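pinging the channel bc i need a second pair of eyes. not urgent but kinda urgent?? the chain im working w is below, pasted from the shared doc
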Amino acid sequence: MQRSLFDEVNLAEIHTDQFPGERLIACFNPLLADERTRRREELLVATEKELSKLARRVARRTKRRMSQSEIGLLAGRIINRFKVAKHFQLTIEDGVFGFARNTTSIEQESQLDGIYVIRTSQPKEELSAEDAVRSYKRLSEVEQAFRSLNSLDLLVRPIRHRTEDHVRACVFICLLAYYVQWHMKRGWAPLLFEDEELAADRAVRDPVAPAEPSPSVQRKKSTHRTVKGFPVHSFRRLLEELATRSRHVCIPAGDSSGSTFTKLTDADPLHAEAFRLLGLKPARF
């Protein structure tokens, strides 16, 4: 695969006999390329610093020189710690240690900086190369779902079941709760720090280039206000705000019959808007 594939576009579909019946979509992200180049250089410099210390340590041992195996063990610990062993050439003998960068290896790896490949068995007629990349990136939503279940919103505690039916029932309830939450977040998007234009933008924007925040998100972040003037909330904070409504059971003073009536606090404009977005009407009693 040559870097010239990405001179005009940032993705290219390639084929190889190593993956019969599959399509390979190679993508190039220049920001990712810069990050990998920077990170590799940091690791190389850190490794050279430790190897230089080892070289000075070996040189100081003149009366009882370090053996080749002893030097090799210490050098191995260093290059394995920083995961760049293939980028160094080591000279190890009894009492002698030297090192140098393997420029050929570094150059070969740098040619792949910023490139990642997506595999799919879907035919081109059903899934274009661009949509394959978009579908791959949407896997982040699956990761977000697990985070939501375990730590962010639903806070499902560890429950140890003993039978298969109980395990399946627990998983079903957890996913059902997440599904309800997902629909609520979509409905409440105008009130939350959510990208209201995300679904439409995904279908037309460059699938490889870093996503840019939509105008609605930029406005919310800068003003912390919605189009209608409501304060922007997180999902959990909005639930806490809605939980301030309460129903009171009232007993008339001096009434010995034991009769009661209920009174529900009035919905403020934010509460009313939240119910409207979900297609609900606030309860009145």
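so The chain is about 45% helix and 15% strand. and The beta strands are 11-14, 23-28, 88-93, 96-101, 115-120, 247-250, 261-264. — does that match what u expected or am i reading it wrong
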